[in-house]
């Protein structure tokens, strides 16, 4: 059975999942990862029954919590957090986006964008997706200089720029823990990741004429 964090079970019930069914081709979700991605077994379509591959192996998916700019006008308590279910069909484009920026995987503070680019969701015509990823930092050991001295900031790739990610200033003191996050986990994060999450959780005014990063 998949291990579940107690606080996630206690506090996570109010986070909305990303909805592809009721949105057209071109619908995009963009956000900053606020929790360690989790793995869980998928369920059959329109059922609570667990799903398996023909081999008998369980079908698994990745659950990522994103801090987005989306708000439900009918819900005054909507803080913009969304759960993205990365199914096996979506994993390919997300993996390619991660490899494109030289990251090792999805990390807290990373910026992820996923767009529905095709498909109706019906049998024989599944949804298809495109993705972009911006890693919060790069391992200094992988940079020229071997990580000597102060760790270098992550280089800004074209994909990261399209997600609104810029090179952060040098780390100094920690940043105040945002509401709704575990203070212990927050204190353990690098300052760069604290800064990225704080920026994502701040109210963002709509910018006319801005197009999705695809």
User: How confident is the prediction overall: mean pLDDT?
Assistant: 73
The count of β-strands is: 7
Alpha-carbon Rg, integer:
18 Å
How many DSSP H or I helices? 5
Protein structure class: alpha+beta
Strand content: 15-25%
Strand count, sense and closure of the main sheet? Answer: 7 strands, mixed
User: How many domain regions?
Assistant: 1
N- and C-termini, Cα separation: 37 Å
Q: Would you list the SSEs in sequence order as H and E?
A: HEEEEEHEEHHH
Quick recap:
This protein has 214 residues and is an alpha+beta fold.
Structure overview:
- The structure is a single chain.
- With 214 residues, the chain is of the alpha+beta class.
- The protein has one domain.
- Helix content is 19%, strand content 20%.
- The protein contains 5 helices and 7 strands; from the N terminus they run αβββββαββααα.
- Strands 1, 2, 3, 4, 5, 6 and 7 form a 7-stranded mixed β-sheet that branches.
- It is globular and about 50 Å long.
- The termini are far apart.
């Amino acid at each position: 059975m998949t291990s579940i964090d107690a606080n996630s079970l206690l506090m996570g019930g109010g986070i909305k999942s990303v909805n592809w069914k009721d949105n057209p081709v071109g619908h995009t979700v963009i956000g900053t990862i606020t929790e360690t991605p989790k793995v869980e077994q998928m369920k059959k379509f329109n059922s609570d029954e667990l799903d398996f591959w023909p081999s008998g192996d369980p079908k698994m998916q990745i659950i990522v919590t994103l801090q987005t700019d989306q708000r439900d006008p009918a819900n005054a308590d909507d803080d913009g957090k969304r759960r993205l279910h990365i199914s096996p069909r979506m994993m390919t484009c997300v993996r390619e986006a991660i490899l494109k920026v030289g990251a090792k995987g999805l990390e807290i503070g990373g910026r992820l964008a996923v767009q529905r680019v095709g498909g109706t969701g019906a049998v024989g015509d599944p949804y298809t997706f495109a993705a972009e990823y911006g890693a919060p930092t790069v391992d200094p050991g992988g940079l020229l200089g071997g990580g000597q001295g102060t760790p270098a900031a992550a280089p800004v790739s074209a994909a990261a720029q399209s997600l609104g990610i810029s090179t952060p200033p040098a780390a100094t003191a920690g940043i105040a823990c945002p509401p709704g996050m575990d203070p212990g986990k927050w204190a353990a994060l690098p300052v760069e990741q604290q800064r990225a999450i704080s920026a994502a959780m701040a109210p963002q005014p709509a910018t006319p004429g801005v197009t999705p990063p695809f």
